[in-house]
Amino acid sequence: MSRSRTRTALLLCLIGLAASLALATGATVIDGPADTLADDRVAIQPADGPNGEYAYLDGDDELVIDVSPTNPNLDGEFEGVNVNSRTAFGDVFTVTYTADELAHVWIEHDVDGLSFVVSDDSDEGYRSIESEEHNVTLGPNATASVGVVVDTTDEDAVPGTLSESAFGIHARVADPATEPSDFGGERDETGSTGPVTTVTAPSPSERVFVAENVDDGDTVRFDAGEMELAGAAVSLDRLDLLGASTRSYELEAAGSPDAFADAGPLEADDDPRPLAYLALAYDLDANDVEGLRLLFSAEPAYLDDTATALGDVTLYRLAADGEWAELDADGVDERVVELRGSPADRDHFSATSEGLSVFAVAAHVPRIHATGASLPDGSVDAGEETVVDVDVENRGGAAGERSLTLAADGEAIATRAVRLDPDASTTVSFPVTMADPGVYELTVEGLGAGDDALAAGTLTVGSPDAGDGAGTGSEADVTETPEDAGNAGEGGGANGDTAGSADTSTPTDEPGGLGLSGVAGLVLLLVVVTVAVPVVRRIGGS
Question: What is the pLDDT of residues 234-249, one digit of tens each?
Fold first, then answer.
């Protein structure tokens, strides 16, 4: 069988896993059966949740971890671990310690490319428990959920069926006065056995979290079990109360897609869009709490339908002064999601608050608005271009794009797309050319939701031939025919004195030159005079 084929069909068998356990209780070492150890003080079982399918008890009650296609719990579509990859499987099996002492628990093995881990709050989301130095400490009746990390990038790792001698789970009683517990608190001289928690669900959108036996500074985790905040679209998955000094307390959580009446809707800078709300009621002093960590998730289809990018999802808290304060909400890495056994078909987020209050899951969105429009040249001829300038800004907390439309008398004539980063602004120019004369009211449309069309100005478009037409008509009014010229000459001769009086009494501007019509009239007049002179002489001589 080739190495690459072996990697793809990975099978990890912890045969007789419990048989290699060495549990030290004073001077006695007790070997237990396969699934329970040390007179039932330690129990090893497949974990609840989706990743628990990778573990099962075989016919001999021996725990088997199987991430190969041969796993009887998995459907036929599973093809095993990918080659040249590093894959984390969280919450595969559990180790429960039922004795009255604190105990260090760790796992030892010599298998390349394999790690046993438990979840924590590091950047990776998990840590190794493969030595006594890096153990997990369990209190009485406490359980650790163990995962595995498989690294097939290691050329020396040839995973296959592994013998029972390859693994050992070890537990050693710890000093209760000095050793903190990773799971289940610590036992001290007062008899404390660590926090005991219960979670009840009155409805899909409500949870009641109760913690007892809490020591000062303990972090108490509550599994909210995908409590609905906005139906199944947005849910609260886990709530961690950090450093509470109250011995016991109760928190009631309620989710809603709408704002709670006592708190009012989300109002904050950049005008974020609320996705869901979470309200907490509690019987402890909030000032005695170091913080609250919230893990929440959303359906990818819901985020797509609402055009919400993963990086734009955030969380707000209603502060004591009535103002909404934004928290640092981060996406949870896929490896951490898998390690925790959280649903892989959702997008997961985490945020930490310094106080308890009402919270709003929200999304930064673009808020693009036109703030003004101008028409520098409001009077042009038909066919002549002018420009409308529109000032645009993004008041939202996310980058975005919007299409602006310029309309004339309500009819769209041009469209421009503008994209802006948060708090950015620009000027969009619309070239405008109208073919027909007239008066047009220009407006800008396609603005933000609730915005009316923005008036850009009144554009007056004239006819390009209006000036030439007026000049031609004036010339037509003064053009004379030859007959008119003759009559004018005769009239001028009969009324010469009157014409001369008009010239002196009413000065007029003289033309700088003689037109063709004037020359023709003058020639005609000379001809008439020349003919008339001989006739007069002839009459006079007879």
Answer: 999 999 988 877 788 8
| Domains contained in the chain, number | 3
CB within 8 A of 89, min separation 6: which ones?
Answer: 51, 54, 67, 147, 148, 149, 150, 338, 339
Q: In 10 A of CB 253, how many CB atoms?
A: 23
Q: Please, which residues have CB within 8 angstroms of residue 290's CB and are 6 or more apart in sequence?
A: 242, 243, 244, 354
Q: Is residue 428 part of a domain?
A: yes
Q: What is the pLDDT of residue 479?
A: 34
310 and 167 both lie in a single domain: no
Q: 400-408 and 438-445: which strand pairing?
A: antiparallel
The reply to whether 226 and 145 lie within a common domain is: no
Residues (pLDDT < 70) of the chain are: 1-42, 75-82, 99-101, 123, 154-167, 174-194, 335, 338-341, 447-451, 466-542
- Tokens found for residue 353: 């608050």
Q: What is the pLDDT of residue 120?
A: 79
Interior CA angle at 415 toward 414 and 419, to 5°?
Answer: 150
Specify whether 346 is located in the same domain as 329.
yes
Going through 152-283 in order, the beta strands assigned E by DSSP cover 167-173, 196-203, 206-212, 218-228, 234-244, 249-256, 273-282
CB 159 within 8 A of CB 380: no
pTM of the model: 0.55
Cα three-residue angle 16-40-109, rounded to 5 degrees: 35
Give φ, ψ of 404 to 5 degrees: -105, 140
